[in-house]
Amino acid sequence: MSKKKAIVSVKVIKGDINRALKKYKRLVNDSEHLLELRERRYYKKPTTVRRRQKQLAVREQQKLTILEKIEGGDTTVKMFTKKQKKKPNNPKKENKDTKK
Questions:
Q1: Which helix (H) or strand (E) holds 99?
Q2: d(C-alpha 16, C-alpha 41), whole Å
Q3: Are residues 57 and 67 in the same domain?
Q4: I need a labelling partner for 58 at 20 to 30 A (CA). Which of 39, 47, 48, 94 fits?
């Protein structure tokens, strides 16, 4: 990213404000001004930024290896998006015959 970004401006042609607003929103989105504002809202330590990037890279690599295994025909590999909930340990129910 460059340090200085161009200021976004749009001319209203023939009084068509809706078209100018649509064009303005697109230009602001393309210039990534809002993205930079969101990133700068809070200070993040450089180590935190690096750690997050590393975590994302590791996750992406794991995802790619799992997908490659699936494409290769490995049916034992499963892709979980959420952590599975543990089933509660219920004591075994006694049969009616054993109570008598």
A1: helix 96-99
A2: 34
A3: yes
A4: 39
